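FAQ: What does a ligand-bound record look like?

Like this one, built around adenosine-5'-diphosphate:
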Amino acid sequence: MDFAHFIGGQWVADSDVTTNRNPANQDDIIGTYARGGAGRVDEAVAAAMAALDDWAHASPQIRHDVLEKAGALIVQRKDELGRLLAREEGKTIAEAVGETVRAAQVFKFFAGEALRNTGDAVASVRPGVEVTIEREPVGVIGLITPWNFPIAIPAWKMAPALAFGNTVVMKPAELTPGCAWELANILEQAGCPAGVFNLVMGPGSQVGARIVEHPDIAAVSFTGSVATGRRVAVDCAANGKKVQLEMGGKNPMVVVDDADLDVAVGAALNGAFFSTGQRCTASSRLIVTKGVHDAFLDRLTAAAADLVVGDPLDAKTQIGPVVDQSQMDQNMRYLTLASEEGCDVRGGGLGNGNGFFMHPAIFAGATNAMRVSREEIFGPMASIIKVDDYDEALAVANDTEFGLSSGICTTSLKLASHFRRHAKAGMVMVNLPTAGVDYHVPFGGRKGSSYGPREQGSYAREFYTTVKTSYIAP
Ligand code: ADP
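The answer part, i.e. the structure of the complex:
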């Protein structure tokens, strides 16, 4: 089936298409998706500009109702959408249905936020003057999204953008246009007016680049790689746009001697390997104090070897395929590098079948200076770094150019509390995997991981609104 762009309330086909294939079975074609260029972005921005004034001034009840209905439609179709997600991205069906439900929850949360967009009224320092401070829409917002959470990330950018009265031009990752297309379809069914939400699919170098440079786009929210994100930020600054970036991570999970090993091994297994390690919050550095190191390593190695790698649609599967050949090639380069750098590589073999299957790999004997411990790999691989004590563990945890999520496994309230205060990260997890977050609280990091205001929860308002201060002498 052919899937078109959604521009100005119309489905617009293109002669050029991208074939969307299942990474677990390259013969399974999900569909062909329109592949646009700069011209399609220009059309979409014109439609979004035309729709902006009415949407910005629409009753919040109207915006609430569209988002609430979209959330309800996603829930109704969660199994079918989850299956599509698993087929196009490769995460297990349980994770995919869970992500789909999360997208619905995000829409419903921001339906409420549309009604809760309060302002302030303060006394002026001048007699007889009133001052109000209100949050207004920013304008047309460009959304550029990655492939690893193909329904949740578009949802958590679209929903706040629309809730606060902005109009949107969205470009999904080329590998995963299917879920984004379904969201456009659902918004249309939910009664979203023409031009308020526009979907343009195609390559980042053309569609993404045009979004970043288009003079009528007021703000860009981007999630993706560090290299692209930095470039997007520079280009947005040059074009006077507001920008928000979520990029990589090299997230530490500290395990200290007093940790409950069942909890620590479970958290490491989930954090490092679930979703095939393709999460910016993945626990890719496991920093373990010497008293518990050998026991932790043995148990993690055994548990990782038991993980079932295979078809995401099979309910028994725990680890689906790597997303594509190029990511697989990168993973293999890092496996080789780990050996060259002196790690004892455990696991990492290729799986069977017509997909990009690989088993989780543990880099035992790693140091924090190695490239495999410093660069984001985005695969089912983790460095195990042995340290003397908690103080060294904390220093190693913070010794990274990233700062998204940081975790510790301990039974000591004192250490947990100290770690929470001293971790240089946007999110801290105690006795939990570094990945796995709630939808009603802020998401984001520090240093090389993020740039600009936080996403999600009530904090999302900061990026998707602009402040107006009014002085009135009645
Ligand atoms: P990933 O490794 O996750 O694919 P990318 O940063 O390459 O990370 O992609 C994230 C998103 O950014 C995708 O939607 C991609 O198409 C888009 N993108 C890639 N290059 C550019 C660019 N030059 N300008 C804007 N967007 C881009």
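Follow-up question: can I read anything off the structure? Yes, for example: The mean pLDDT is 97.
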